[in-house]
Specification:
Layout (H helix, E strand, L loop, with lengths): L4 E6 L2 E6 L10 H15 L6 E6 L4 E3 L4 H9 L3 H22 L5 E5 L2 E3 L1 H7 L5 E5 L4 E3 L13 H4 L7 H8 L5 H6 L5 E2 L5 H10 L5 H9 L12 H12 L5 H9 L4 H10 L4 H13 L5 H18 L1 H11 L17 H5 L18
Parallel strand pairs: 2-3, 3-5, 4-6, 5-7, 6-8, 7-9
Antiparallel strand pairs: 1-2
Amino acid sequence: MDNFVLTDIKNGIGFITLDRPKALNSLSLEMVRSLTATLRAWHNNPNVRAVFIYSSSEKAFCAGGDIRFFYDVGTKTPMQDSALLEDFFSEEYALNHLIHFYPKPYIALMNGVVMGGGMGIAQSGVASRLRIVTERTKMAMPEVNIGLFPDVGGGYFLNHTPGEIGTYLGLTGEVISAADAIYANLADVFIPTSELDNLMSLLSTTSEADVRVAIRDFAQQFTAQIDPASSKLASQRAAIDQHFQGNQLHRICESLAQDTSTFATDTVAIMAKRSPLLMAVTLEQLRLCAQKSVAECLRIERTMVRHCFKHGEVLEGVRALVVDKDNLPKWSPASIAEVTEVMVSSFFAPVWPDYAHPLAHLP
């Protein structure tokens, strides 16, 4: 089996290289397990003072989970292989939790595409993390485009963006830039790709006790190249906060429809392509998770995933986007007006007793 996760320790820094370029570093179960094993091994290793995760390709940091695998397991494979799908999400979410509370500085270089599962291994953590973006960064939580919801802790980190930006990103799946990401508290510093070799040289030589301090000092010289306050999201902030408040999807859509601005009309057109049901489910998820802990959010999302595959919306979304590539998903239901509260609430119904939940062990 190919090894898509490469590791090395240099200058007291544990380097993790995602090396599956043909798949834009989409996470497989084997990759999740390799990442977990590596981070656990380095957890108490005195020779590792920080972790730095990045990609071997400029095209993508990580484009998410391996959705073709999701489709194949969900539609074609024998029963014993369906357990691999259960394992994938349980172990991926446990990895997100491990990273979130990692005791050493955890630095992610989000160069290129960073979406879905890639966000989960970059956004996790608060006290320990440092998130680097470049001019190549293309960031999104695009799950509603395939009939899924913003998982991997999306219920947590999207709720820690300013105002209703997290709601907007979750319901539209829109791609944002480096400046947007910093403005939205989804990134910390900007370093141009032309300086990444110098960044790596710095990491191999710095004696700074906290590697993040050295990186921030290095990135300081590039602050004039990017202005989060003038980003696209910043300019849209008032409209986003106005339209994406509240707990009802149809109210959000009605508010947008009454606005003749370019932002509103473009957003209406974008949302018309997304799964009506999963947009409503996502809105409920974000509101439900607003005051929840990381572990609570991940447990809710693990339950939701089970319901998603049982319903089948995600399989249709992946079929349209990746398998047949007709980009014509037949959503069920087909319109927002047909989405009921009962349909939405069914995605949050308990699947396991609390003690038997796959993530019951997360503190």
